[in-house]
């Protein structure tokens, strides 16, 4: 993403703009740039930028925080590298300046697949809720081969413990 732009500049308003001015500017730009109206990919990116700026500037608390730290940096010189850093500060992901977040390509948490379990519920439990304990089997790396399927210290030959699957 490009260098950070001032959120007021994104909406085309001044820093002393009223809440009403910010709302009007957002609505005007949203109508102009909305993907359903303007199919241009650049307009879509600009629409996302405008929506993000409005989400921060329309909320009095978030606006105060942005005004205090802005794109020039916050306490202890915690500057922002791009607009994503600003959004991360307001919506989680590591605090001001993205502290605690890896730099470079955006790091993403990799989640496992969703689990599906079929259970039978009576009418009463379905309506009023119920608590059930479930036992879930999960695959774990074989301790002996470390998950590679080979006997320790050998070329890849099937491990006797896990049969070469790498998991037991």
Write a brief structural summary.
The protein is an all-alpha fold and 168 residues long.
* CATH architecture heading of the largest domain: Orthogonal Bundle
Shape by Cα distribution = elongated
Secondary-structure element sequence?
HHHHHH
What's the CATH superfamily of the largest domain, by name? DnaJ domain
Q: What is the CATH class name of the largest domain? A: Mainly Alpha
Helix content: 25-40%
Number of helices: 6
Tell me the number of strands: 0
Query: Unreliable stretches, pLDDT < 50, 5 or more residues?
Result: 72-79, 94-107
Tell me the fraction of residues in β-strands, as a range. under 5%
Query: Residue-averaged pLDDT, rounded?
Result: 74
Q: What is the first-to-last residue Cα distance?
A: 43 Å
Q: Can you walk me through this structure?
A:
By secondary structure, this protein is mainly alpha-helical. It is built from 6 helices and no strands. It has helices spanning 7-11, 19-33, 41-57, 60-69, 83-91, 123-128. 16% of the residues are buried. Mean pLDDT is 74; it is low at 72-79 and 94-107.
Tags for this model:
168 residues, mainly alpha, Helix Hairpins, 37% helix
